[in-house]
Amino acid sequence: MRANLARVGPEVVRSEGDFSRVALPNADADVLRDLLLQEEAEVVLEIGLAYSVSALAIAEALISHGKRCAAHLIIDAFQDRFHDAGWKAMHQQGHELRLED
Ligand SMILES: C[S@@+](CC[C@H](N)C(=O)[O-])C[C@H]1O[C@@H](n2cnc3c(N)ncnc32)[C@H](O)[C@@H]1O
Predict the structure, then answer these.
(1) What is the DSSP letter of 39?
(2) If you measure from the C-alpha of residue 50 to the centroid of ligand 1, how many angstroms do you get, rounded to a whole number?
(3) 25 lines ligand 1 (CB under 6 A)
(4) What is the predicted pLDDT for the residue at 95?
(5) Which residues pair with 44 in a beta bridge?
(6) How big is the CA angle at 2 (ends 24 and 14), to the nearest 5 degrees?
(7) Which of 19, 43, 47, 53 has the CA that lies 20 to 30 A from 78?
């Protein structure tokens, strides 16, 4: 999913060029994932889902650990402006999601 996002971009964007402007570069997302793995992170608080590049990388790390207590809390005040693209990508990837307003 993340590799595909990096290759073709999201299905919908706010405007042309927006994905490359706001999304974490995929190589940086790899670094983020590897850092979290190295630190054996169990709980991650993320501010800003956007198109979900960083969120998918964080989820990769948490799942790789396989710890049942792992949690990933994402706060995004403006996900609707991204046509919920990040939320949908996380859902498509099969992550168990809970939305709280
Ligand atoms: C640069 S994008 C995040 C990119 C994303 N982390 C990635 O790797 O693709 C910034 C995000 O922060 C969110 N945001 C901006 N202001 C915010 C605020 N005051 N509270 C919560 N989220 C906010 C936006 O909706 C947007 O999703």
Answers:
(1) T
(2) 6
(3) no
(4) 85
(5) 72
(6) 60
(7) 43
pLDDT at 36 over 90: yes
Packing angle, helices 53-65 and 85-92, rounded to 10: 30
Domain ranges of the chain: 2-92
Q: Which helix (H) or strand (E) holds 46?
A: strand 43-47
Is there an atom of ligand 1 within 6 Å of 24 CB? yes
Q: Whose CA is nearest to atom 16 of ligand 1?
A: 77
pLDDT value at 1 more than 90: no
69: CA distance to ligand 1 center in Å? 25
Supply the CATH classification number for the domain 2-92. Answer: 3.40.50.150
Please name the residue whose Cα sits nearest to atom 12 of ligand 1: 48
